[in-house]
Amino acid sequence: MRPYRFIISGGGTGGHIYPAIAIANELKRRHSDAEFLFVGAKDRMEMEKVPQAGYNIVGLWISGIQRKLSLKNLMFPFKLISSLFKAKAIVRKFKPDVAIGTGGYASAPLLRVASMRNVPCLIQEQNSYAGITNKWLKNKVQKICVAYEGMEAFFPSEKLVLTGNPVREDLLDISKNRIEAQSFFNLEPHRKTLIVLGGSLGARKINTLIDNSLDFLMSVGVQVIWQCGKFYEEEYKDRSGGLVQVHAFLNRMDLAYAAADIIISRAGALSVSELCLVGKPVIFIPSPNVAEDHQTKNATAISEKEAAILLRESEASEKFESVFTGLLHSEEKQRTLSLNIANLARPNATREIVDEIEKLIKEL
Fold first, then answer.
1. What global pTM score does this model have?
2. In 3D, which of 244, 336, 213 has the Cα closest to residue 282?
3. Domain 5-167+347-362 listed as CATH 3.40.50.2000
4. What is the structure's pLDDT at 167?
5. Do the strands 160-162 and 143-146 form a parallel or antiparallel pair, or are they unpaired?
6. 8 and 15 Cβ atoms separated by less than 8 Å
7. CA distance readout (Å), 132 to 116, 138, 145, 301, 319
8. Does the pLDDT of residue 289 top 90, yes or no?
9. Domain 170-342 has CATH 3.40.50.720
10. How far is CA 134 from the centre of its chain?
């Protein structure tokens, strides 16, 4: 019997790429002789990140539809037809046993073609509001793994499996690393620590909010680890000093989470899933500038369970000080948020998704 062959597509953003790589790694752990091929969109970050993870990838000439009229929109039909033809050639040559999609435009033509050739297909939706590509594929796949309840609003209920999102395993037990974390960041153990996360590139509105709030944060006695993003490092690096540390990146996220008493974060799907595992009080400031405003929907789904605080970007400058003070001075509120968000964690998500993939293999 020949080794299994898995074809995987997910890209455009880290939120699609990293789950795809995590799924591949778990499949490889179980089936060491398996063959893997990733399919992405040319010129997107998956063409760099996937080879760095040790997997082969081919690119399609595909991109999304812009919200406003543009030349790119006029090119979309040609790109889609080109990608469908190339996906057909890829699937015919690679002969996959299963096709897996984690979102992003490249997964649409690939899984459409795979389903037409009777290849079993599974998709994974990270957000509480389903993306366009996965909604388009819903009738073509056998299984849909989701991270939130209530996804029957977007997908056939009989195909749904609630698994959660794949996350890094180094976050599964961070509490034991608190002393190491305080030493690593040179923190004062008796002070509360605020971690500010805006993503690897940074978030301008969060950075502006924190910059304008530094005097307030110093007045309430917290120490701040501020991840501003590489686009903003030059602008904010001189704010470091005393109780404030500014970092373009946080290479030891496990230690940053371990050191945190309160966390401010965007609400991308993977960030939310990580923060559920971390189990610390969180103030979500979702970006309103993403497809279908899915970050706000993610944060709302968590805040409605009294598992985090949702602070809308449009209200942040006005309400931040009162919201933060209320949380900082209420140990009961901190405990409630920590307990409730930890109860939403799904630490076995990657394994459960791969379990579903293996069920498809057994049905071959």
1. 0.85
2. 336
3. yes
4. 86
5. parallel
6. no
7. 20, 10, 16, 19, 33
8. no
9. no
10. 16
Q: Residue 1: CB partners within 8 Å, gap ≥ 6? A: none
Q: What pLDDT does 44 receive?
A: 81
SS (H, E, C) the chain: CCCCEEEEECCCCHHHHHHHHHHHHHHHHHCCCCEEEEEEECCCCHHHHHHHCCCCEEEECCCCCCCCCCHHHHHHHHHHHHHHHHHHHHHHHHCCCEEEECCCCCHHHHHHHHHHCCCCEEEEECCCCCCHHHHHHCCCCCEEEECCCCHHHCCCHHHEEECCCCCCHHHCCCHHHHHHHHHHCCCCCCCCEEEEECCCCCCHHHHHHHHHHHHHHHHCCCEEEEECCHHHHHHHHHHCECCEEEECCCCCHHHHHHHCCEEEECCCHHHHHHHHHHCCCEEECCCCCCHHHHHHHHHHHHHCCCCCEECCHHHHHHHHHHHHHHHHCCHHHHHHHHHHHHCCCCCCHHHHHHHHHHHHHHCC
Nearest to 52 by CA among 16, 18, 27: 18
Residue that has been written with the tokens 């050639």 in this structure: 89
Share above pLDDT 90 across residues of the chain, in percent, rounded to a whole number: 74
* Residue 225 CA, distance from chain mean position: 21
Token match 């496990």: residue? Answer: 254
- The pLDDT of residue 39 is 94
Domain boundaries, the chain: 5-167+347-362, 170-342
Write out the two tokens for 165: 């999102």
> Within 13 Å and on the Cβ side, how many CA atoms surround 282?
32
The answer to whether the 5-167+347-362 and 170-342 domains have the same CATH topology is yes
